[in-house]
Amino acid sequence: MIRRVNEEEREKEEYVRMRKTLWPHASDSEHRQDIEHTTKGLPFYKNEWKWQVFVIERPNRSLGGFIELSLYPELPFVDSKPVAYIEGWYVDADLQRQGFGRKLVHAGEYWALEQGCLEIASDVECDNVGSQEAHMSLGFRESHRSNEGVYYKKYIGKEGPL
């Protein structure tokens, strides 16, 4: 099941586990600090307005993935304002290739529409070919590349995700 993250301590510990897998360079304390903001929807990163996190809940109530989204007033490579941004997207290995990543992105797209967005954007590290392919398979178009990564955007329109 895909749902919004909650602030239970048990859930935060699983969220830390998943974030550490996605971003191993960050310390546990950095992950915990970020989670305190993202679970409350509070801005803390750049000039974003707010955050939303959706998680995969397994039948045993443990977590199996997440998507972190932020809302920006504008971004230079996106045509519309405001714009939702996928800051992080993770699915446990045993749940990959079963449609859970797609469901997380669709939850994010519907949230973006609720915020008045017509587009959603994301970025991927240059060497992460698997994530680049996942973005393309979900209808994202490459906007540009830089030393920092590959940037994507997707029109979600007023009708919602395709």
UniProtKB/TrEMBL annotation:
MF-aspect GO terms: aminoglycoside 6'-N-acetyltransferase activity
Name of the protein: Aminoglycoside N(6')-acetyltransferase type 1
Residue ranges of every copy of the N-acetyltransferase domain listed in the record: 1-157
CDD domains the UniProt entry points to: NAT_SF
GO biological process: response to antibiotic
Enzyme Commission number(s) of this protein: 2.3.1.82
Keywords: Acyltransferase, Antibiotic resistance, Transferase
Organism of origin: Halobacillus salinus
Complexes and interactors: Homodimer.
Reactions catalysed according to its record: kanamycin B + acetyl-CoA = N(6')-acetylkanamycin B + CoA + H(+)
InterPro entries with a match to the protein in the record: Acyl_CoA_acyltransferase, Aminoglycoside_N6-AcTrfrase, GNAT_dom
Taxonomic lineage of the native organism: Bacteria, Bacillati, Bacillota, Bacilli, Bacillales
A Pfam family matched in the record: Acetyltransf_1
